[in-house]
Design brief:
Elements: H1 17-57, H2 59-62, H3 70-94, H4 99-119, H5 124-137, H6 143-163, H7 165-169, H8 178-285, H9 291-319, E1 328-331, H10 332-349, E2 353-356, E3 364-367, H11 369-387, E4 394-402, E5 405-412, H12 419-422, H13 442-452, E6 456-462, E7 465-473, H14 482-485
Helix pairs in contact: 1-3, 1-4, 1-8, 3-4, 4-5, 4-6, 5-8, 6-8, 8-9, 8-10, 8-11, 9-10, 10-11, 11-13
Amino acid sequence: MTLQAPSPSSSDYFINARERGEKLFLDREFFLHCRIDRVFAKLLIAEWLFAFICSIIISPRSWGGSRFSENNHTLVAFFLGGLIISLPCLLVWRYPGRTMTRHVVAIAQVSISAILIHLTGGRIETHFHIFGSLAFLMFYRDWRVLITATVVVTCDHAFRGIYFPLSLYGIQSANSWRWVEHASWVIFEDIFLIYSCLTGYKEMRDICMRQGELELTNEKVEFQVAVRSKELAETHAQLDLERLRSAESSRLAALGEMAGGIAHEINNPLAVISIRSKHIKRAILAKPAQYDQALEYAEIIEVTSNRIATIVSGLRSFSRSGSDDPFESCDLSAVVRDTLNLCSERLKTHGVQLKIGEISKSLRFEGRSVQISQVLINLLNNSYDAVSQLEERWIKLDTEVIGEWLQMTMTDSGPGIPDEILAKIMQPFFTTKPVGMGTGLGLSISKGIIEQHRGQFEILKVGDRNHFVIRLPREKPFIVNLSEAV
């Protein structure tokens, strides 16, 4: 069954692009929160150590002359700071990426800012640490974290501004509403940071949506490619099957064209056998019996029977497809001889002279002899059709060795092939014969067989004659170098 590419609304293969984009966004958001959680865990530990150092170096000078002692500052920095960062670090380790974790981290971060302000005696420079903390928290891209941090900062400023102004402002007495000014500046920064968070949040979501659509499109394309590839494979398999059927049809057509000649080729020896058998019988029954004459007739019958056996053997070999046969060493002269045994009588009966040059038995190639014989039969049948109605009727087959090639060239006395036909004569199903007289597959199949044998098949036009040229790789003789062997 052929697969059908799904439509854009098909839910059997693909989820909705928006749902895919939403999933990508949630995954990316979770990964971002986990990464920022780990960064803040390291930052809180570093800030805790920095606060401890400040309590030893800066606090004695910032609080000089006050009622607080140096040891109290160190204890506040070490124990209170350690208590503040312990919970967020634990949550980052156990529950990274959770909403609760980042809100606790935000509270711890601004609490560390409060401790630093306290340790420096309310120096104005330390207040900027709050603005830096809010900027760091913005990396979460969650505006609600900024609200949590702002609430903690406001409560801290309100409480310490009223009851411990020295810890916050560095003076003993201050306006009880001064904390509102500090909180206003924090809220002013929050406006821009919240806008940046919302903008970054929207951009990240849009990117994920586009990536979801792109992945969906890629999957659809890959699915369609898989469908087309399967269809192409099925088409190739069908073409291979049709090619085998066409080759079989061409072979049977050639066999049919030879049938008349083969029948005549076999009938003549059978007639000889019948007549000589009667002669043997008469020679034996004669008074006295003519045994020498009977022996001569028996030898004639034996030779004639061997001739029939050769024809039948060649016919049996040619009737096989041979496409599944393994490549083996083949004698070129034997292949040509077996081929001519099938069609020589037909050519002789119709007055077609067959000119065959001498073929050395040392000429060998690796391949399938049945298929090469089929190619020669196809060419001989074509040549016969071309010359059968002419006054001068001959077909010539020459063989020669050219370098690493065994070359066979077949020429006939027929008229040359016009150039416009010669350009497409190798195409499957193209034929110049009348309807019912040819399949148009002989030359295309012959070319395919020769190419399977790593050879070459071409038609050369020399003057008015066409030369069908077959080249096969020559089997190299195995030569032992005796001097090297010794």
